[in-house]
Amino acid sequence: SHSHGDVRRQERARRVLVFPLPFQGHINPMLQLADVLHGRGLAVTVLHTQFNALDPALHPEFTFVAVPDGIPADVAASGSIIPIILAMNAAMEASSAVHDVLASVLADDGQPPAACMFIDANLLAVQKAASALGLPTMVLRTGSAACFSCFLAYPMLHHNGYLPPKESQLYTPVKELPPLRVRDLFVTSSSDHEMVRKVLSRASETVRNSSGLVVNTFDALEAAELDRIRRELDVPVVLAAGPLHKLSSRSTGSSLLREDRSCMEWLDKQAVGSVLYVSFGSLASMDGAELCEVAWGLADSGQPFLWVVRRDLVRGSDGPGLPEGFDRAVEGRGKVIPWAPQQEVLAHFAVGGFWTHNGWNSTLEGVGEGLPMICMPHFADQMMNTRYVEAVWGVGFELEGKKERNKIAKAIQKLMNEREGELAREKARELKKKVAACLESGGSSMLAIDKLVEHISSL
Ligand code: UDP
Predict the structure, then answer these.
(1) Rounded to 5 degrees, what angle do the CA atoms 411, 372, 264 make?
(2) What is the pLDDT of residues 392-410, one digit of tens each?
(3) Is the ipTM of this complex over 0.95?
(4) What per-residue confidence (pLDDT) applies to 355?
(5) Could you list the residue ranges that cross the membrane (predicted)?
(6) What is the chain's alpha carbon radius of gyration, rounded to the nearest angstrom?
């Protein structure tokens, strides 16, 4: 009942606010962190934008507050993440809306006093509003430590001539940030370099202005990269507290799209380790011809597969538009769904490989289940995640260049049935053990959460 909820809330001594960037890959880890902190006795208030608004019904244990985001309709409709980040921050800085909402959230005396607010690094405008109200901020980085370390190095990368990237130097090693090459550095030759530079420098500023940084990674995965961040940043704590999806008690509940659960029954009927799970995340898109090559590559591989084809996966069309004859060709062996309960799928016994775009969450989720990967990065940090998968952890390989059905079918065979895939699978199993170790009591991520809770109570 309502009054029972109030009583329970009052028992919690402190409260944290959380404000994710409104994209799936940023929402998931923030709500997982919120769940972990709630499990440690803290009350949680979730602030969210109207754009990609969250559904409070999915988390009855949290309080939800909507914040006007001021994103112009045409920018929102573009779906392009960097312009949306910049437009949202500009609108928030131009109005007092965030300040006013925050002030009223802080004044709510039906709630325990707020210790701090966890924000996405892309919300500098929110950091400034909190700071004006005397509320400390903590940043959750939803990408890798390598990625944030690269953000910090951005001025140096420009200064030393790596950026903007030149077509002839894409494979030049960046000796300051091994094992990255120029092509792995967050940008492509078609990026709007000024926009990228602005977004990354604002993200670094958000962290520098905050009382600590939590990175969704773990020590054994990125020790050198975490060290680099700690050397370069002067903030009270830098904690590696991931993989958050493994620490959080719930695996679902923050999907913006409806999960098609029919795939779980389908997986139940497949042989152990036989299925390739294929997903390119929540944002990546391709053209109709590429979709066609992917489809026939899957069909020609002969391998069982589960493929997520979002309604907006193909640029400029509504609906998947799979090639004629495809359904018949893969009948009984392949399944296509609009959105998956991904973490459950990856943990299913039938899944033996992951063809991914290497968004950081997907990468961590694959690593957490000990799955070898075919990597097909599209943009942002996906190229560098792929580089780490291939050259550092050895748990997969990149499918480079133009998408062609023959190449795709061969890559799938290589991953699922050949020696190279077997080696990647062995490495992936080793890495899965390291994930388990960091989550045990006394493990590095559990200690990081202890330290985080202690830090929160000191604020
Ligand atoms: N995801 C999901 N169902 C799908 C595809 C993706 O639940 O069918 C989730 C996935 O588990 C991950 C998130 O969406 O947590 C995607 O984040 P990621 O960083 O991998 O990529 P992005 O979408 O940001 O490119």
Answers:
(1) 100
(2) 999 999 999 999 999 999 9
(3) yes
(4) 98
(5) none
(6) 22
Structure-model confidence comparison of residues 400 and 250, the more confident one: 400
DSSP state, residue 390: I
Pocket probe mutation, ligand 1, options 313, 362, 384, 385, max atoms within 8 Å of Cβ: 362
- Predicted pLDDT at 80: 87
For residue 178, report the phi and psi dihedrals to the nearest 5 degrees: -65, 145
Compute the distance from residue 151 Cα to the ligand 1 centre, in Å: 22
Tell me which residue of 66, 88, 62 sits closest to 75, measured CA to CA: 88
- pLDDT for 319: 64
Rounded to 5°, angle at Cα 285 from 279 and 291: 75
pTM over 0.90: yes
C-alpha dihedral, 16 to 17 to 22 to 27, nearest 10° = 10
pLDDT reading at 324 higher than 90: yes
Spatial strand order of the sheet with 43-49 comes to 63-67, 43-49, 15-19, 114-120, 137-141, 213-215, 238-240
pLDDT, tens digit, for every residue of 446-456? 999 999 999 99
Give percent helix, percent strand, percent coil of the chain, each to the nearest 5: 50, 15, 40
- Cα distance between residue 453 and residue 450, in whole Å: 5
**210-236 per-position pLDDT tens digit:** 999 999 999 999 999 999 999 999 999
Cα(first)–Cα(last) distance of the chain, in Å?
A: 32
31 has a pLDDT exceeding 90: yes
Number of helices followed by number of strands (H, E) in the chain: 20, 13
User: Scanning the structure block, which residue is given the tokens 């961040």?
Assistant: 229
Going by alpha carbons, the residue nearest to atom 7 of ligand 1 is 342
Q: 3-class DSSP state for residue 227?
A: helix
Instruction: List residues bridging with 334 in a β-sheet.
Output: 305
Give the burial class of 159: count Cβ atoms within 10 A of its Cβ; 0-12 exposed, 13-18 middle, 19 or more buried: exposed
| Ligand 1 centroid, distance to 24 Cα (angstroms) | 6
pLDDT of residue 72: 93
**CA–CA separation, 134 and 266 (whole Å):** 52
> What residue's CA is closest to ligand 1, atom 6?
281
- Side-chain-side CA neighbours of residue 164 (13 Å): 11
The more confident residue out of 443 and 9 is: 443
pLDDT > 80? residue 198: yes
Q: How far is CA 184 from the centre of its chain?
A: 17
> Which residue has its alpha carbon closest to ligand 1 atom 2?
342
User: What phi, psi does 93 have (nearest 5°)?
Assistant: -75, -25
Residue 171's Cα: distance from chain center in Å? Answer: 26
H or E, element range at 396: strand 396-398
